[in-house]
Amino acid sequence: MAWPHTLPGTHQGEAGFPGRKWGGLLLMLLLALSPGVQAQTETLDITALEQTLRQQAQRQLDDYLTLQRWQANRVDYQVWLAPAAAHLPPCRQALGLQAGGLYRQPWGRRPYLISCGDPQWQLRGRVDVSVFMSVWATAQEIAKGHPIQVADLVAKELEVSRIQRGFTPASLSLLEQKSGRRLRTGQLIGELDLQKQWAVRQGEGVLIRAGQGSFAATTRGEALENGAIGEGIRVRNNSSGREIQTWVLGKGEVETRF
């Protein structure tokens, strides 16, 4: 009696079914295609999360530059996530992003706490923001009280996120402003190097920065007094209608202190 036809390299099992080798391969294939197995191996989309952090940092920087009426020549963003990100499951809700620290300028190292509610997890991340901008420096020595002229200025492109002292973007005019002190040749010119000018004027809208602990928040208000950088002025909070004491940080920007 003739044997039933078999595949090359296989042996015939009971009732004409494939041998154990082919049965094992079939079982592995079915398991790989099982939705339950796929769900267990699914992980967080790292690329999408990095893009979300980058966009958040970019929005904060754009808002700040618009408020100050500054113009950046170039901006670089470097995103870092804690290694645990590679082992986290995808979030089935919108991610929560909480900016850490109290920073006046939205550049340098910006930490974030990333959280998910379903399933629950938290993750540390940061964005290193490098901003390159043309700023004013002195082309020659300037005496105290001297009205600044075109010949007194030279524009330099610098990474302002690394500058430790005050500076003035070259997109802003310094002509006819008077120096508040003697300035050396090649020195960057900040607002404190000039005779006092109002950074905030009565009746103007201001950005209020409020911070306590590790995190900060912002809201809008109206200045009730004129103020130069570093001075304390009263401001009305647009959200609550309350008058609060603040200190001037820069043009159109104040902070509360706890």
Question: Can you give a write-up of this model?
Answer:
This protein is α+β, with helices and mostly antiparallel strands. It has 3 domains: 46-131, no CATH class; 132-193, Alpha-Beta Complex (Type Iii Antifreeze Protein Isoform Hplc 12); 205-255, SH3 type barrels (Roll), CATH 2.30.30.760. The protein is 17% helix and 32% strand. It has 3 helices and 10 strands; from the N terminus they run αααββββββββββ. The strands form 2 sheets. Strands 1, 2, 3, 4 and 5 form a 5-stranded antiparallel sheet that branches. A 5-stranded mixed barrel has the order 6-7-8-9-10.
The run of helices and strands is HHHEEEEEEEEEE
Major β-sheet profile: 5 strands, antiparallel
Helical coverage, percent range? 10-25%
Instruction: Count up the domains.
Output: 3
Mean pLDDT: 83
Low-pLDDT segments, ≥5 res: 1-20, 36-40
* Residues in β-strands, percent: 25-35%
Radius of gyration (CA) equals 31 Å
Separate helix tally: 3
Apparent shape: flat
The count of β-strands is 10
Structural class designation: alpha+beta
Task: State the separation between the terminal residues, measured CA to CA.
Answer: 98 Å
